[in-house]
Amino acid sequence: MDFKKELKQYQNLINNELKKYIETKKCPEEILNCSMEYSLMAGGKRLRPILVIATYQIFKDDIQECMPFSVAIEMVHNFSLIHDDLPGIDNDDFRHGKPTNHKQFNEATAILAGDGLLNYAYRVISQNLEDSRKEDLTKKIKIFQEFSNAVNKMIIGEFVDTEVEGKQISEETLEYIHQNKTGALLTLCVRMGAILAEVSQEDLDKLTSYAEKIGLAFQIKDDILSEEGNEEILGKPVGNDRILKKCTYVSKYGLEVAKEKLEELTKEAIEELKIYNEKAEFLVELAKYIKERNK
Amino acid sequence: MDFKKELKQYQNLINNELKKYIETKKCPEEILNCSMEYSLMAGGKRLRPILVIATYQIFKDDIQECMPFSVAIEMVHNFSLIHDDLPGIDNDDFRHGKPTNHKQFNEATAILAGDGLLNYAYRVISQNLEDSRKEDLTKKIKIFQEFSNAVNKMIIGEFVDTEVEGKQISEETLEYIHQNKTGALLTLCVRMGAILAEVSQEDLDKLTSYAEKIGLAFQIKDDILSEEGNEEILGKPVGNDRILKKCTYVSKYGLEVAKEKLEELTKEAIEELKIYNEKAEFLVELAKYIKERNK
Lengths: 295, 295
Description:
Two copies of one chain form a homodimer. By secondary structure, the first copy, chain A, is mostly helical. The first copy, chain A, has one domain: Farnesyl Diphosphate Synthase. Chain A is 73% helix and 1% strand. Chain A has 13 helices and two strands, in the order ααααββααααααααα. Chain A has helices at residues 3-19, 30-40, 47-59, 67-85, 101-104, 107-130, 134-163, 171-196, 201-228, 231-234, 240-243, 249-272, 281-292, and strands at 94-95, 98-99. Chain A has a two-stranded antiparallel sheet. Chains A and B meet through α6 and α7 of A and α6 and α7 of B.
């Protein structure tokens, strides 16, 4: 499998889908729409929607069913990035090598663009529910519920992360932050794909475990990159966590232990997919990619 | 009818319902929960949930069906107040005579509390959908869709309002701001009550017209109060709109015309309810209250 090529295909698929949702510009709120588009199309990895689709594809082919939820999750992800970057929270000037939303536009626009994207995700879900066949409603309502609960966890994780800045924190608190801030949404993605594909409870549990492991691996890799990544490739300053005395996996356990943990989690995550054989090849490669990525 | 007494009863009903949704405090996000509770229970008029319930009661008695949507709409309203008050938007220090959320807590907490309340509204709706009987799903999904569209309009209205600050604007733009920023949500409330009660299209149109008229009346009254209200009763400074050169109904047309328009809209709104006789008495009195309130 040519993973890079498949990844690119997924990314193109999602970028094209997202473009359909960019709203008309000749209106009084034109700048707000531009601001949402700016962040949404700023070149993210599309990891979350890819997880939805690739999980679904282990079991089923017709991925159209996944698209609204893939779009919605990417909107939520971008909402969280815009708000996290705000002067009142992380006060970051760059993301993906470009000015952050409030730097490119202004603070009011960034706050409202974030609000707009969060709400847009639910507009997409609500439209999708209305258009659904009766027999699909039950699973989609379940997804809607898991979706809103995961977003809640993400907000909680971000809050606790902000609260503890510059403080020494316990292992439990660090785990709590990771599980909520990034883990909940990544797990949601895999579960959405699985629930849409109507998998058994056993499969759902296995895939949830895979998701939880790559979720933590993703965060640990983020912490490692933030410590020793390449600024130009990352598109944002390196070493900021240390300067801000942020408590991360790296600051708490050191680079060596962090890297070992990353190896271990990746291995365990891949193990969960074993029974799906080549059907899960992309998700296996994705776990490796999360470990090895340089941005 | 003792309107003040009935209003108080509605407010108590809603306050008690909202309290059920206040989340556990012994957790790492305790302060975030306190911050959401602070704004949610800060003594708002509960106009929006009251509109849902009172509209429903023209047709049906068992208001339990209305409660989740009433809670959700009040959460959305409070999310918008918290974000509007932020330093990056209106930079207000007081609301309901108390420090605004970011003054009482801090900016990061206020941003995330607003996000949390917006998302909480959808958690409530999603839970309600999951628990619904099959035959109720169609109307509730329709409401979910109207809900997310109205919130979108509210965000757009707030954005355009922010954009035009200090500028002279056309009649059309002023109307656009009003219809979106406050009108859309108030109209949604009445429509939610009506759709839940399964009214005819004719009734829905009539009630929508009532809502649009009191929505605009509400905004005009707000502008009038902001110009000549009593600071102590309002709980916020008076004359700010003029100082900020905000384009309002009053600054554009003058106090006299604004007051005439308010009279006219109230009369027209009440006219729409005529066919419901005493069943709509509370909504008639509510329209008068919107016109006559001093806060």
